[in-house]
Amino acid sequence: MKYALLALALLFSQTSLALAPLPVTQIAPGVYMHQSTHHWPDRDNHGEIANIGFIVGDKCVAVVDTGGSPQQGIALRIAIKQTTSKPVCYVINTHVHPDHIYGNIAFKAPGVKFVGHHKLARAMASRAPHYLGRAEETLDIRVNQDHIIPPDLEVKDSMTLNLGNRELLLTAHPTAHTDNDLSVYDKTTDTLWAADLVFLEHIPVIDGSIKSWLAELDRLEKNHYKLVIPGHGTPVTDWPASMQPQKAYLSDLAKEIRAAIKQGKTLEQAVDSVGLSAKDHWQLFDQFHRKNVTIAFAELEWED
Questions:
Q1: Which residues face 193 on adjacent strands?
Q2: What is the pLDDT of residues 208-233, one digit of tens each?
């Protein structure tokens, strides 16, 4: 293990020399974000499609998601070093999807704690064989089990991290986008890093429960934040108005699926007909909408 870590450190050192820092923007005092464009994850973008970044306190830095590839994680680490001399103390993974966790290994070091939802480790373990088995073919990246780093600190309800005169409130949400969604609230700037609980411009992607996601959006809608950072899309200052398109898409989807089930339509018929009026309102609609219908239909078909 000792020699493996030394070899890994040497590899990162050599790779860092060839990589430029990840472009980041300070969107609030001490809050830095890399905003990704909307793409289907593939061999050209290497799965680097999510908003990721970091928050700087007086004592140390918390990373919020690490990117879709080990190389993006290294580039983010370089950006942090160029921004502040404070060390990284926490790496927060907001959920299990590869575009948010594959850069983790770039931050694996003494003194760094990985933090996630209490269901994240289980999700990582169950999905790792599939994710790792397809990474080279679909994303053109080389990853193995060492790149799947479960949390050292698990959030069951909520947890406060102190970065030095800067507190972050982490909330473990009920099943929504996934069953392991975690949000990060920066009290200093009244910023909610909502991650994939919130999609803007990019069509929402269901990998959990449409009913529970709508319920969670109802709860979040009652709060007011100065700034909200989505997992995909542009940060917004008009919360909760900005989340209404997502809420409408999911609400209409559930309504139309329930109607289709009541009419005795099959899953195949629903996939071909439900929700098509939203097509022009979302990027990547063709890539994700049919899957959304499939997952939501399977859930709603058995509701009381």
A1: 184, 229
A2: 999 999 999 999 999 999 999 999 99
